[in-house]
Amino acid sequence: MTTEVSEEPRITTQNGKYPKSIPSIIGNEACERFSFYGMRNILTDFLIGYLLLDLVEKDRAGAAKEVFHIFVMGVYFFPLLGGWISDRFLGKYRTIFWLSLLYCVGHGCLAVFEGNKTGFYAGLFLIALGSGGIKPCVSSFVGDQFDQSNKHLARVVFEAFYWVINFGSFFASQLMPRALKHWGPAIAFGIPGILMFIATLIFWMGRKNYVVVPPSPADPHSFGSIAWTALQKGRGAGRVLAVLGALGFVGSFFLIPTLGFVASFCLALVVFLVLAGPGVMLSLEAARGTHPDEDVEGVRSVMKVLVVFALVTPFWSLFDQKASTWIIQGKAMVLPGWSILETASQMQAVNPLLVMLLIPFNNAVVYPLLRKIGANPTQLRRMTAGIAIAGVSWIVIGVLQRWIDAGEKVSILWQLVPYTILTIGEVLVSTTGLEFAYSQAPAKMKGTLMSFWSLSVTVGGLWVLLVNAGMKNERLTSAISEATGLSTTAFQMFFFAGFAFVFAFAFGAYAMRYKSVEHYRKA
């Protein structure tokens, strides 16, 4: 199999039509998402029921939750690496292809090493590297297929892109838990591996139709170079914040004995970005003269978008727990006597099914109606509402947990309510965020900014690990129980709801001052 593509950039005018390359990209994404969600949605059940049987039973759920969120954090951390490789060396096409092959190997490890922790975790690492590494490339690769003549079609394709992600996720969520239950982990993890190989093949077969934007040459005026110059030449508060960021980065590693390496490393990165980021903004004028004004302004635009990304991180801490915390809750609930619902993991199929219904409904009914009455649903307004709505879903899930804690037999069908509410929030945040991230980035910084969008999911996982670490403190949990009368699990659920509401308010306040821009190729 060859991966040769022309060294000359294939950039053509689309004349206002849909690009010919879109079917191949969409087909690839459908199969790849089936493979990813197929293994992801059975991971918690597999860990509790198979791989972690050497642990005391009461500790298995907590350990499975930590493994799951560390894996998800890796998936959304590696876009930084994938975006850098794509932008500087291989370009998007080659990066997607070669990392997809590693992705296939990772699936193979899960199927072969079902009883070996070292081999299984190695497979999770390769899947995180492959899935995460291609993530910023695939979404920005979609954007590359458009120019000024057909940019109005990009929103529709981005939403179709997200729709097909959920198409694959729906069938994976229904079928793979059954495969695990009836056929065992080797087959349950092997099927997603086969789908990933098919995804790679589909992507390769469409190579002649792609608009291929070549990687950027070594650029002395890149985002990182300009930020470094600003920190070096800056004075006053900017320099102080940069130094504090560096100290905070190093200091966070002293928490490894308490939090573990992954959580400590991510916390170090967050501390550095939170402090050094404003330091760059305050010192950015010092980079003028060394770097072109246009590129300096490009960095300023990216830094403003990073604030948006930071404020959306609590949403991801809520959203991703539907595949860990909500499954663990579901295992304590009563399953209906239907053959279609055999395990708690299958409840996750509700989410992609609703997404497939809500995206066209919003476009055809909700958004036109809002515009008609003068309430323009801008990107940032939708995302603000989505974060708050996600918080509401966690109030409901917390109420269900209180029923369970009181000894009531609660049907798992009650989870349909929070799943529905959370999905409404997801559609408003995720589908909008993909297009927003691409449109706000200057051309040579698109891979970088899309990587930071994915990194926001990693930070969401970090909040989960930090809260879980806090809940291991017996004095803290005893104080919570005495003060609130809630179980540790129920308290965490209400805590995350409040967490979302606080950040939804902050997001909305920042959105009111943010000025959107558009960066699409010229026709």
TrEMBL record:
Signal peptide residues on this chain, from the entry's feature table: none
Keyword tRNA processing listed: no
Transmembrane helix as UniProt keyword: yes
UniProt keyword terms in alphabetical order: Membrane, Peptide transport, Protein transport, Transmembrane, Transmembrane helix, Transport
Locations listed in the record: Membrane
Principal location listed in the UniProt entry: membrane
Pfam families: PTR2
Membrane topology classification: Multi-pass membrane protein
Stretches that traverse the bilayer: 67-84, 96-113, 119-141, 153-171, 183-204, 262-282, 302-319, 349-370, 382-404, 416-438, 450-471, 491-512
Family to which this protein belongs: Belongs to the major facilitator superfamily. Proton-dependent oligopeptide transporter (POT/PTR) (TC 2.A.17) family.
Protein's UniProt name: Oligopeptide:H+ symporter
Native source species: Polyangium mundeleinium
